[in-house]
Amino acid sequence: xxxxxxxKCGDGTLYTGxxxxxxxxxxxxxxxxxxxxxxxxxxxxxxxHQEKFKTLALAREREAEIKRMNRSEKLKLIADHSLKS
Length: 85
What we know:
This protein is α+β, with helices and mostly antiparallel strands.
């Protein structure tokens, strides 16, 4: 499975990415040098949202869609998802 995720950074900003191993990627974002440059200076980060896809192409398409959203649209997506969980 391919996972698209949104992180809430320590400074309140949001970061969107994709991976096949979310646990490993979160560990990288929070502690290792291999985390995204954006999140390195904004630790700690916490998972705010995730979506699973069968193919890399679908995941990348959704990641790009989320990245085009403004902050309020991303926050609504996070809130709507948390209500369904």
